[in-house]
Description:
The chain is an alpha+beta fold. The protein is 25% helix and 30% strand. The protein has a seven-stranded mixed beta sheet with strand order 1-3-4-5-6-15-7. Strand 13, helix 8 and strand 14 form a beta-alpha-beta unit. The longest helix is centred in the N-terminal third of the chain and has 19 residues. It starts with a strand and ends in a 29-residue tail after the last strand.
Amino acid sequence: xxxxxxxxxxxxxxxxxxxxxxxxxxxxxxxxxxxxxxxxxxxxxxxxxxxxxxxxxxxxxxxxxxxxxxxxxxxxxxxxxxxxxxxxxxxxxxxxxxxxxxxxxxxxxxxxxxxxxxxxxxxxxxxxxxxxxxxxxxxxxxxxxxxxxxxxxxxxxxxxxxxxxxxxxxxxxxxxxxxxxxxxxxxxxxxxxxxxxxxxxxxxxxxxxxxxxxxxxxxxxxxxxxxxxxxxxxxxxxxxxxxxxxxxxxxxxxxxxxxxxxxxxxxxxxxxxxxxxxxxxxxxxxxxxxxxxxxxxxxxxxxxxxxxxxxxxxxxxxxxxxxxxxxxxxxxxxxxxxxxxxxxxxxxxxxxxxxxxxxxxxxxxxxxxxxxxxxxxxxxxxxxxxxxxxxxxxxxxxxxxxxx
Length: 404
């Protein structure tokens, strides 16, 4: 008799079998695809979240010692902004007359890394893993759960939407820029300043606290060892006046972003490429190295394991903020080159105005990443925000780098 057991991941006992399932799922893909090397740490993508869990599905055979892991799932929980308190709305608005965008927070769970071995699919294993993870979410006070997938991943959509009750929620864009062999030019019309974590926290809480998915523990994100810094672009010649003066009287135009070092967490690799495609990429790199003064765009070595830097907390203000964001992204490109990364990536709302200033290659990017959401309970928000799953999208979202 065969029994399916869903239990907590044991690093010492399960690591080898989990890596084998990942390998089988990759082989089943076959075509050109992006492989993620977790560098021997299956929970690396959730390890820095406030609360996290990894579950495995294990097939127990007749004899107790015969056990095989056939699936796994990862999940994490944090507190994020899901709306804002408006003056006169009766939601504590009168208590905050100078803060019309005072955020409403909720407990949000995130599902990622769901895998089922190809030989054990269509047996309800994925559904059991999701349900067990949702039980943990609810037990730990999560009001909502969401997941991200490709819009044409029919198997994933059928599981989460048709069977688990999720609904399509947001369609942010993943923008990816290759790191060239040469440094790119950063305009001299702006000054780029590095902020201390406390100053960065003050800026983010003032301007972005009510942005969807903004983490309440932004200080933990900014102080994490993987966060390489927060940088602000201001008109040339201006210096950082301190958070109080900047917040009360910001420059006419400014922009900000932070950089997260994914290179030390996991590596990516493009697999399944043809020899012709790899030869063309190699040729562009050769030309870029030989003639760096020409500034020729080149395709980095993506067919071997490579690292990336993720840009998060993108924002700004003023009529030229998109141009200032472009300068920051170019600065981030050069930083990634110094650190030996293959690409720089970010994720922004589909209607984000600053995306006009974010350099990216369409061939490497994803115009519509699909986020699906489900409401688990109604008692955990710090204000009456209604049903977040039915709210219209805002102009911006905050993508937490801890959940890549």
